[in-house]
Amino acid sequence: EALASNQSYEAFHEAGVYNIATGKLYATSNWASDFNNPINVTTIDLNNNDAIASVRYKNVQNANGGAAFYPPGTPANSSEGQQIVFCDEGQTDLSPSQLTLVDPSTNTTRILLNNYFGANFSSINDVVQHPLTGDLYFTDARYAYWQNFGPTPTLRPQVYRFSPTTGQVQAIADDFVAPNGIELSPDWKHLYVTDTGRNQRGNETRDYVNPANIYRFDIAADGGLENRHVFAYTSGGIPDGIHTDTMGNVYSGLNDGVYVWNPHGQMIGKIAVGGTEAVANFAF
């Protein structure tokens, strides 16, 4: 069932975060190659006949991925205190890529992180919060630079861990071409990261030598990552957004639908989506 559509621009591209308090789903648009028309945040009000609205937030220039955020001490999946952390890809040298916290009930914002020891992030892409520690795991690719609205990168494409409580930030995984989607397993012991390097320039050109993989890591006792291995390789499409269910199955958007693997990396199904556009992201 189609909840909403927009024919004038690619309104529903990334994020896909449901906020319990507002009853709305928050999505971000694709870059439209127009500095005067930055990426929009679009809401779908599930409590009001799926009404659509565009929203602009202070300190959010070009949002991409996003995740539900709970302040320390707040139970996960509760409506109490739930906010949204957006991955802002930034714009040129004047607006750095950053993690911005948004309270959708008040539309107030707060910048959580906008540099790695003085170096600007290239293009923060996606983020997930660990329910126990509150740490944010996020990917930093180069899509803003590749799509000509970001400066020349000064950092490698990497995965980072950030503690909102202490302010500590660490680079915890590299050797990616374009780290993209990121998600935890339901027992919070593993981290999944997609690499969309096959589409590294952010256009329709494909380089089939580059990865289109889902990687799985074990989360170490100190919050770092270890035991990296290829969880799944997609020979045709490019795995972008990624989520897991309570059974440990892994879902990723690519090509003509949402593909599903069991916890052992065996593909067990596909949720087909009609139309000609590829699936970039989705939400439960």
From TrEMBL:
Pfam families: SGL. InterPro entries: 6-blade_b-propeller_TolB-like, Oryzine_lactonohydrolase, SGL. Coiled coil: none annotated. Residues 98-284 form the SMP-30/Gluconolactonase/LRE-like region domain. This is SMP-30/Gluconolactonase/LRE-like region domain-containing protein. It comes from Zymoseptoria tritici (strain CBS 115943 / IPO323) (Speckled leaf blotch fungus).
